[in-house]
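Figure 2 data, in text form.
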Amino acid sequence: MLIRSMTQATNTMNQLQKQIDTIGHNLANLDTNGFKKTTSSFHELVKQQINNQPDERKEVGRLTDYGIRVGNGAKLQSKVVFEQGVIKKTNRELDIALTNPYQFLQVQVNGEIHYTRDGALYLSPANDGTNRLMLVTSDGYSIVDENENPIYLDDSFKEIIISPNGTLTAVSRNDNDPNQIVQLGIVKVNRPDMLAAQGNNLYRFTEENPDYVEMLNGDLRSEVSVQQGALEGSNVQLATEMTDLITAQRSYQMNARSISIGDQMLGLINNVRS
């Protein structure tokens, strides 16, 4: 039983370390735009039945055997929480906040579509010998339109207006020239639990399924909820994370102590035998 208890404590300590790493990741992204925290919970691993009573002692109505049921430690399960973060006004025309927690901007990364809640957008030279500018994220990834094509703008505009339904209008300097109008590629994610973090505040689906995501274009454009001149902050709560961190550290210490005590008892047993 001593060896078993030490094994259980070791397994649990490994999972507690993962929880502490998760909390550290949340705290490190406290001020990251649109960041979604990861929560963790513990589940007991499969139990083992130790029968230490004679079978004739069965009680009427009892469905399980007499004996001891011993777990083999704990397992950590993590989940990204897509709750709305706090909206912070910036008054910058290329900053947008998605005010619906299940709507995402589409981003093109190495030719593949990813999703982000970070609305801090920038204009980067197209690098194609023209005077066009490409709409990108802070990491330089292309923001795409409703047809999943990169967004390019001529540099002949004086201001950019982004409407609540995600329509970007680059107002021309010359009143006689037409404005450039683009529909930002915004989707509604029906299964956010199937999204996996890819780093750089980007997400992808763990498996492709057309039911997981819905492109908000055409008549569905009215469902888009965008606020220009603002950014969504992270949904990490400092007080909650610090409380969870202290609890995890205390649990880690307790399990480490149980291993130490088990090792001392095994030493005493070996000394008695010798």
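Caption note: The first strand starts at residue 38 and ends at 44.
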